Amino acid sequence: MIAFLNGDYRPLESVCISPLDRGFLFGDGVYEVIPSYRGVLFEADAHLERLRRSLAAVRIADPLEGAAWRAMLERLLSLNPGGDRAIYLQVTRGVAAREHAFPETAAATVFAMVNPIRSPEPELAERGVAAITLPDQRWGRCDIKAVTLLPNVLARQQAAEQGAVEAILLRNGQVTEGAASNVFVVRDGRVQTPPLNDAILPGITRRVLIDVLRDTARACVEQPIGEDQLRAADEIWLTSSTKELLPVTRLDGRAVGDGCPGPVWREALAAYQSAKPAGRSALPPEGEA
Ligand SMILES: Cc1ncc(COP(=O)(O)O)c(C=O)c1O
Q1: Which residues pair with residue 95 across a beta bridge?
Q2: Residue 206 CA, ligand 1 centroid: distance in Å
Q3: Percent of the chain scoring above 70 in pLDDT
Q4: Is 194 in the pocket of ligand 1 (CB under 6 A)?
Q5: How do beta strands 129-135 and 244-251 pair?
Q6: Which of 93, 145, 243, 250 is flagged as catalytic?
Q7: 173 shares a domain with 106
Q8: Which of 34, 60, 96, 271 could bridge across to 103 with cysteines, CB 3.0–4.6 Å?
């Protein structure tokens, strides 16, 4: 696999980053995960806009000009040809003597690599996945896509140890998001997701899904979701660039709705798939599984 580091393209195994990199020492950096389908980037502008926003929020000067980001992503994809891919892109404040305050001179470290997108196994998406709930113990700026992910890692590990794929986080009695996903619920056919604020990441998949549902009978309402609403939901979905739109059919060991992926999820997934380049379909239509 060919990766990118500070202007060079080279095999991932030969990429070396200093132990004094502030990403390593402090988690002082931000990142993006940008999907591509059959070699075509999906929502690259939205991901790059969110990257610029994250950089500005943590006061790292944007190390590349607008078009240069896109050119780098395209080049990296062409050097790693194949199926569906997600580009992991990380920018840190760079290499400097270890001191908490910003270094006076340090060039940002820019690193990117490409991973296959593992679409959920069709059976898994057909069965749905399990999730658990946990208290949201993260900081107050979860709208920034920071590499500092220790609470998310611990939450996801706790989910894995309980046989679940995601932890849905609760703060002050309300759903924020998953450890690495946004959350939607459906009740009586009405689709709802928490509104954007500094407690959640403005997910690109979340936004695409809201857009594709906007002009349908399933238009999504952006309103806080209380814990009781989560537990009473007919359907719960998780969204992310690599998971796409995953139905949660067990929450804390109890069935969600009738315990099967719901009809609204199926409609929403079809709408989401049609928005993607080449309309790749992760799932066969109902009845043809
Ligand atoms: C905490 C968190 N929320 C939401 C998301 C979903 O964001 P996106 O749809 O842009 O991948 C992610 C993605 O990794 C995430 O880490």
Answers
A1: 21
A2: 9
A3: 96
A4: no
A5: parallel
A6: 145
A7: no
A8: 96
CB 213 within 8 A of CB 189: no
Asked if the model's pLDDT at residue 288 lies above 90, the reply is no
> How far is the C-alpha of 278 from the C-alpha of 276, rounded, in Å?
6
Query: Where a domain ends, among 116, 144, 179?
Result: 116
1-54, pLDDT tens digit by residue? 999 999 999 999 999 999 999 999 999 999 999 999 989 999 999 999 999 999
Residues 107 and 147 in one domain: no
> pLDDT tens-digit profile of 200-223?
999 999 999 999 999 889 999 999
Which of the listed residues 134, 241, 242, 272 should we mutate to test ligand 1's pocket, taking the one with most ligand atoms within 8 A of CB? 241
CATH at 166: 3.20.10.10
Cα distance between residue 175 and residue 194, in whole Å: 7
Instruction: Give the span between the Cα atoms of 222 and 220, in whole angstroms.
Output: 6
- Report the pLDDT value the prediction gives residue 284, as an integer from 0 to 100: 39
In a domain, 288, yes or no: no
User: Which residue, chain included where needed, has tokens 């200093």?
Assistant: 18
One-letter amino acid at 151 equals: P
CA quadruple 272, 275, 68, 92: dihedral, nearest 10: 0
pLDDT in tens, 267-281: 999 999 999 886 454
Range of the domain at 207: 122-279
